[in-house]
Write a structure and sequence with these properties.
The protein is mainly alpha-helical and 144 residues long. Helix content is 57%, strand content 7%. The chain folds into two domains: 5-81, Arc Repressor Mutant, subunit A (Orthogonal Bundle), CATH 1.10.10; 90-143, no CATH class. The mean pLDDT is 94.
Length: 144
């Protein structure tokens, strides 16, 4: 089964937040519904790296670059898995994601990784819209 990062975010968005094992179970259930093999777990890591999903303590939630799309059969997952919708503290999550962003930005600047710098500049705008963070200074550093 091939899922885009936005579809993976759509699965998580159905619940508000999922632990990694719960997300893996949801993907197995979704694959079963579609008569396909579940996606490789690396899809989750790729979605985290691209800020489509972000870690919140021990759970994953929809990240700033995601435009969640519910994949075919996805709307049945809350009933199949019997997991209540969860709320995430957006302020605390925003601070955690900001810290991760600033660490990645510093690393990209130190290694002069132009691809990472350009990607992080784009992410900074999404992150400011998504959470209560201000990244103008970090963006200036990246642009310089």
């Amino acid at each position: 089964m091939d899922l885009s990062p936005d579809e993976l975010a759509g699965v998580v968005d159905l619940f508000g937040a999922l632990t990694r094992p719960e997300l893996k179970t949801a993907l197995v259930e979704l694959a079963f519904k579609q008569s396909e093999d579940p996606p490789d777990e690396s899809l989750i890591d790729t979605a985290i790296e691209s800020y489509h999903l972000v870690k919140s303590e021990d759970a994953l939630t929809v990240g700033p670059t995601a435009f969640p799309v519910i994949p075919d059969g996805g709307t049945d997952l809350p009933h199949i898995m019997d997991i209540e919708s969860r709320k995430v503290d957006r302020d605390r999550l925003g601070r955690a994601v900001e810290e991760r962003f600033r660490t990645e930005a510093a690393r990209a600047v130190a290694t002069e990784d132009e691809e990472a710098i350009n990607r992080l500049i784009d992410v900074s705008y999404d992150l400011e819209t998504w959470g209560p963070v201000e990244l103008a200074n970090a963006r200036e550093l990246l642009a310089d």
